[in-house]
Every structure is written in C-alpha cells, then in structure tokens.
Amino acid sequence: MSRAAAAGGASSGEVASSIEASPAAERRRLVSDLAGAPAPLLVVVDFDGTLAIGSRDPAAARITPSAQRALRQLAAQGAGLPPRVVVAVLTGRTVADVADRVRVGGIEYLGDHGLQGATLPRGARTATIARRVTTAERFDRHRDPAEVLAIGVAADLGDPPWLFVERKGPSVAFHVRQAEDVAAARALVVAAIARVERAHGLHDHGLAHYRGRSVVDLRPVDAGGKHEAVERLIATHAPGAVVALGDELSDVDAFEAVRAARQADRRLVGRTIAVHGEGRPAPDELLALADARLRSARDVGPWLAGLGRALASTTADRAGRSGGGPD
Q1: pLDDT tens digit string along 30-47?
Q2: For the domain that residue 154 is a member of, what is the CATH number?
Q3: Catalytic, out of 33, 46, 284, 299
C-alpha cells in the first residue's frame, strides 16, 4: 500500500493554515537552484488545484492559459537530445482525461496517481493518447469489483447530485466536493461502500482507500501511489534536479519522494512547492514538506514560465562558455 493510503477524511489542519505565498526572493532563489543544476530538470506537477483552479465540479476543471503556455515552452526546451527538461503531469485522473484537458505534447502523463502512463508526442492529437496508455496486467482483476462498486454505491445513495463517480478501470473514485457538507458526504460514501461490499460478497477485492479531502478513491492495494510514481521518474530520467508541485493530500506522497531522493543523493537538487486553493489553504501535511508556497493555481503558470526563462538563460550561458551547443 502507498505511504499515503488511508481511509481518513479531511486534513486536521486544512482550516488552521493561512493562505500565504513564499516571499518573492525565496521563490527566485528556488528557480535559480533548479535552473543551475545539471540537466535534466524533472518537473512533476499535479493537475486539479495546481495546473487548474479547483472546481466543485470535477468535469469543469480546465488548465489555466498561463500554465498551458508555460508547459508548452518547457516541452519545447525538452525536445533536444539529451533533454534539458522533462515534464510529467501526475494526477488522480485518467491519462486520457487529463491529456485532453492539458493539451500539451512532448510531456509525460501519469494518471490514476501513477497507475497509468503515456507520453504524448509533440504535435500529436490528444485523442491518440488512449492508444499509448499502459497499465500493468496484474491490476486487471480489480476492474470488475471497481465497476460493481461504482454502480452499487451510486444506487445505494440514490444517485445524489453531489456525487461524481470517476471510473478508472481497476480503480474508482467517488468525488463529494459538490456536497454542502463534504465531510458528511464522504462518510456517507464510505458507509455505502461497506454495504455494497457486504451485499456483493466483495470481501477480498484488493482495493484500498487512497487519501483525499473531498474524494473516496479506491485503488489496487499494491499499486503504490505518487511516491512510487516519482521514484520511477527519478530512476528513469536520472535528473540533476527535480521539483514537484501539488495542492492536496495525495501530493504528500510526491513531496516525500522528492525529499527522500535528495537525502539519498546530496548532489540532487530537490524542491517541493505547495499550492493553496482559491480561498482554501493547502493541507498542513503538505505544507510541512514544502520548500515554497504559491498563493493559488493562478500563480503556477507564471512561476513555471519564470523557470523556463531561467533554464533558457542558463543553457545559453553554458553554451557560450563552452563554445558549443546546449548541454
């Protein structure tokens, strides 16, 4: 089970934290550290609440224009061999769903908290990414119980308007952020899951709760989560620097992976950035692991754009000193 897997509800500190950003000088220093590290730079970014402003309706989430432009600029910088930067969008959504919302080629899309993965080539249509998605065959056995739960829980609760059921093949997520009382709605979903499990004899379906404040996410118990996904990205790309941006409890996993990697390899420049919501602070558990804070998803695009400019400047300086092309 992932380090973040838990059946608990809202973060104990989600109300206590103030919504404040790190000082501008601190954010610039972080950019300088990342841009000055050996290539490649690995950028791992969440979608909902990070690239997209948080929405009570999961279907309405859209990437901010500034974030989309910044990702395209970073993808262009990563087009060389070897790449100067590698960008991965790591989200609880399916790959096909998030790729259609981001619409940026040349980056990696990791869906269902890392259970799914695919790369969309630059210039390719997002509709083609579904054919590239990979999921380990060992998780196929979870597809039937996940579908039984998807249908059964909604029926048990009477298909309330606040419930959004997200089917993800071997996983299923029950979003309750549209409810007036999110904590109470989440408790109703958890109770309904137990009733459906009893009614259908699903006592060993192998799905476990993955924590979140406004969602009940059931995933294969041995699938890992964002921690393992970031570990795989670091092992695959061997970056000189890595930065993770996120806003929710599941991003605690990603932040822990970055901090563990930089502790294991002192040469690695590893940084974490927590993103507050619109009128709602990031969870305290995430803030405790963050090297910097952004006030909202609206600030993510400008920060990523600044990172891209710093990378371009550093690459040009290195090329000038060596008399050759970019490293």
Answers
A1: 999 999 999 999 999 999
A2: 3.30.70
A3: 46
In angstroms, the CA 143 to CA 162 distance is 24
- pTM, two decimals, is 0.87
Q: Are 317 and 92 in contact (CB under 8 A)?
A: no
Say whether 327 is catalytic.
Answer: no
Same domain (yes/no): 107, 192: no
Go through 243-261 and write b for each residue having 16 or more CB atoms within 10 A of its CB, e for each that does not. bbbbbbbbbbbbbbbbbbb
Number of domains in the chain: 2
Angle, helices 300-322 vs 65-77, to 10°: value is 20
Domain extent, residue 178, equals 138-218
